[in-house]
Design goal:
With about 550 residues, the chain is mainly α. The chain has helices at about 5-25, 40-50, 55-65, 70-85, 90-95, 110-120, 125-135, 145-150, 155-160, 170-190, 190-205, 210-220, 230-235, 245, 260-275, 280-295, 300-310, 315-320, 330-345, 350-360, 365-380, 385-395, 405-415, 420-435, 440-450, 455-470, 475-485, 490-505, 510-520, 525-535, 540-555. Helix 9 (about 155-160) packs antiparallel against helix 10 (about 170-190) and helix 15 (about 260-275) runs antiparallel to helix 16 (about 280-295).
Length: about 550
């Protein structure tokens, strides 16, 4: 019997309804309802995987795998979900349980797990044999020569393998990976001085993008660190860099390469980093966790994991992994700052403040600590505290330079919000004196002048300059529309504000501005529509009351 199109449409509709009804329930980790059904578990696993809830997906796929152990596809889904949830040990246990199924020998995931198990157990010969038999185990063939170099049984063999790495034809990043591992392999085979020489050569050609090299270099030189020419030069050129904290403090529990599996852990991180740059976030997460399984102190993986989770809109996961990085790691300072930033974006102000206060206790004379406190207080609308924190940050500057413009800009915003316009204007103008082409300052100062009804032509010019620098910024275009509005050019205001709403459709202020311009231009129904739309986007109390008044009385 051939089923008609309407039947398929009906089935498709009810499938979609079922999918969305259960999706919310499946996101609760403690919900075990679907573990009573094989097909229910498969569907639940798919939905959890789609939502990047890998721990939950692992639970459902493992149940389905137990019900149907001969299905190789389900086994792969189960193994991959366990890897993505960070539970490599569980994945290996499941692999051992179902290893009798001959079909898994063709699975790259199962072979990769076996490869990792051999390395973890320091059975490097078996690992190398497995890799030689199936080079597809490692997702990218480019890094394989480095992994094989770490698996080699002598320095000469290691050198022979790593020299197969085609770094010259693949750009600076690959070159940096090559020389870093070459140095680390030299050090592993007791040629410490040659390792130092290799790293010095790369660092002397530029440090900015080679902090990983600097990290290993710092740990190699050990003595007279502060007098070392390379480190001294870096500190002098970058006095506020967070790495300087690490340089001057004793570190006891950071990552060190003392075995071959440590070197392979670093190689897997390099792969994870490359995958992240190609937006392959799931695979990047998997390689981060595999790297950590080989060495739990390879903390840079946690930082990269957080980047992946942020891109997948999993802010809580990002915070969770960052908390594994100790403050006295060279990544600790930036990790705590990042945790504060994520909490700030989530409006968790007290949590954000707590992490910054820990940094302040650890090293109090840092500009970034006081700046971040000011940012938190500003977002809490505690503008007096914000100004005080920004004052402390500015007081730590030996001399104000172009890179410090943001401090005066930030303090200026807090002054402006606390109705101290003269001080705010002075800060904005000084920020522009330090860095004349800063679009944020040009726009903010221009917009505020317009709101105050002063310097209208100059304000318009500032905003136009900001738009030249960032032509797709809806907030800047809103400012230009508002400049036209305040000058009585209502038709021009409508044109610009419609562009702004097109770029940022859910901002209540921009929608309100467009409503005002439409009303003044004589489009009364359209104006009321726009004001009602502004109310949908949860405007602040004062704006909300103002819009309601305009809906009743007009302008």
């Amino acid at each position: 019997m051939i089923l008609n199109k309407n039947f398929y449409k009906t089935i498709f509709f009810f499938t979609l309804v079922f999918f969305f009804v259960i999706a919310k329930k499946i996101n609760a980790a403690e919900n075990l309802h679907y573990l009573s059904s094989y097909y229910g578990s498969l569907l639940a696993g798919q939905i959890a995987k789609y939502n990047n809830e890998n721990k939950i997906a692992s639970k459902y796929y493992r149940f389905a795998n137990q019900k149907n152990p001969k299905n190789n596809d389900i086994l792969e889904l189960s193994l991959m979900s366990s890897i993505l949830s960070g539970d490599i040990k569980l994945a290996l246990e499941d692999l051992e349980k179902y290893d009798k199924n001959l079909s898994i020998k063709s699975s790259n995931i199962s072979q990769l797990l076996k490869f990792i198990k051999y390395i973890k157990n320091e059975n490097y010969k078996k690992a190398l044999n497995l890799l030689n038999q199936n080079e597809e185990i490692i997702i990218t063939s480019k890094v394989q020569p480095i992994i094989k170099a770490w698996l080699a049984d002598s320095f000469s063999n290691a050198k022979s393998e790593i020299d197969q790495f085609e770094y010259k034809s693949d750009g600076l990043v690959m070159s940096d990976i090559y020389f870093m591992h070459l140095a680390l392999i030299n050090n592993f085979y007791k040629d410490k001085q040659n390792a130092i020489n290799i790293l010095e050569k790369t660092l002397n050609s530029g440090i900015d993008n080679r902090l990983r090299h600097m990290f290993f270099y710092r740990n190699l030189i050990e003595d007279n660190i502060e007098e070392n020419k390379i480190i001294k030069s870096f500190v002098n050129k970058n006095p506020s860099h967070s790495f300087n904290i690490y340089v001057n403090k004793e570190n006891l529990n950071d990552f060190k390469i003392s075995s071959k599996k440590d070197g392979i852990s670093e190689s897997l991180f390099n792969i994870a980093e490359a995958l992240y740059s190609q937006r392959m976030y799931d695979l990047s997460i998997a390689y981060c966790y595999l790297s950590l399984y080989l060495n739990k102190n390879n903390f840079i993986n946690y930082y990269l994991l957080s980047q992946n989770f942020i891109m997948l809109q999993k802010a809580e996961n990002a915070i969770s992994v960052l908390q594994n990085i100790p403050l006295n790691s060279y990544l600790g300072w930036n990790s705590f700052l990042k945790i504060a930033d994520i909490n700030l974006n989530l409006n968790n102000y007290s949590k954000a403040e707590n992490f910054i206060l820990q940094l302040k206790k650890y090293s109090s004379n840092r500009v970034d600590v006081h700046y971040k406190l000011g940012e938190i207080y500003h977002n809490k609308k505690d503008y007096d505290k914000a100004v005080k924190a920004f004052n402390e940050a500015i007081s730590l500057l030996k001399i104000s330079s172009e890179e410090n413009w943001y401090l005066y800009y930030s303090r200026g915003m807090s002054y402006e919000r606390s109705n101290q316009w003269e001080k705010a204007e002075k800060d904005f103008l000084y920020a522009l004196e330090l860095s004349p082409q800063q679009p944020l300052v040009l726009n903010y100062l221009g917009y505020t002048w317009i709101d105050y009804g002063i310097n209208l032509k100059k304000a318009e010019n500032f905003i136009r300059e900001a738009i030249k620098l960032r032509p797709k910024d809806g907030y800047f275009i809103d400012s230009l529309g508002w400049a036209y509005y305040r000058q009585g050019k209502y038709d021009l205001a409508v044109l610009e504000l419609e562009k702004a709403v097109g770029l940022i459709p859910n901002d209540p202020v921009i929608n309100d501005h467009l409503g005002d311009a439409l009303f003044r231009a004589g489009y009364y129904n359209e104006a009321r529509y726009q004001w009602n739309r502004a109310l949908l986007y949860e405007p602040e109390k004062e704006l909300k009351e103002n819009i309601k008044f305009k809906l009743k009385k007009g302008l």
